[in-house]
Amino acid sequence: MSFSMLRFISILSFIYLFSSSLAVAQENKYQQQIQPLAANSLVLDIAKNQQTLVAVGDRGHAFVYQDLWKQVNTPTQALLTKVFFITPEKGWAVGHDATILHTTDGGQSWTLQMQSEEIEKPLLDILFFNEHDGVAVGAYGLFFRTQDGGKTWKSEYHQELLFEEDVAYLAELKAEDEALYLSERSMLLPHFNRIIQATDSTLIMVGELGLVATSTDLGQNWLKQDFIYEGSLFNAIIAGDTAFIMGLRGNVFKSDLSLVNWQSVGLPVDSTINAGILLEEGVLRLVGNAGVIIDISVIGESHLIEQRQGENLVAIAEDSKGNLWVAGNKGLIKLEQK
């Protein structure tokens, strides 16, 4: 399958689911409003934060769970895609228009750190290494870094993740037409869908067109793997001494923590897998499109636990009482015990 066709398929899936230095953002005039049924609309991520859960989604919606879900105000109407906490108080959320929000009270209130309607690309994930140093990644190779807790964010361009033919193409184009070079350069990198800390010293990032890359210097430099699959990958999870990555059409792969010996994991369905969670008994529970909920046992056997009609599930988290919550196109839903 050609590069262009693979990118076309990946972009369709991506749409379906949902200066080098940027100064502190001003308050967005399109502040999100509290909506009575917001928890039943599109929600794209849930993060556990000690005794609470925090979720984000459509139109800048953010929610905090303590026995029940409560919507809280945010300073944006941008679609929010991911939320992350480094301490019980300090967290960040990212979304469309390169939006980055920050909380210092566990998600009860949010301030705008960055947003640019001119960029017209979504941020899809965010990771902090401590309270000061973090990175945010997104569509077409968006990559921003902060060293001051998000007061300022600097753009990085990771050319090492380009295809070889694109490196040569850009070099030729730069010599001929600087403006066209800059325009093309901004669109050639694959979507960076997920970035996680795999070990104390290694990051792994997955994305469009079979992107699997690792870094041992907090993402300043990346080593792109010659991966066994060319479709989009949406998530990565560390389960004990095993790493899992997952993506389109039921494609799930596992490796030891060397992150080089990848093997395919057979699933009972071919639905796109978007997220997962490690349960106490060592079972990995996956969720995906077409409402699929799948368990992978410690010996690698997979079982379809449930299929929820009319739902696309994109996130899963466990609350302080052991209840599992999923998020997707129908909002926040507590799973019945199986």
Automatic annotation (TrEMBL):
Keyword Metal-binding attached: no
**Domain (Photosynthesis system II assembly factor Ycf48/Hcf136-like): residue spans on this chain:** 66-113
Could you name the domain of life of the organism this protein comes from? Bacteria
Sorted alphabetically, the Gene Ontology cellular component annotations on this record are: photosystem II
Q: Which UniProt keywords apply?
A: Photosynthesis, Photosystem II, Signal
Any keyword Signal? yes
- Coiled coil segments of this chain: none
GO biological process entries: photosynthesis
Q: Which residues form the signal peptide?
A: 1-25
Q: What is this protein called?
A: BNR repeat protein
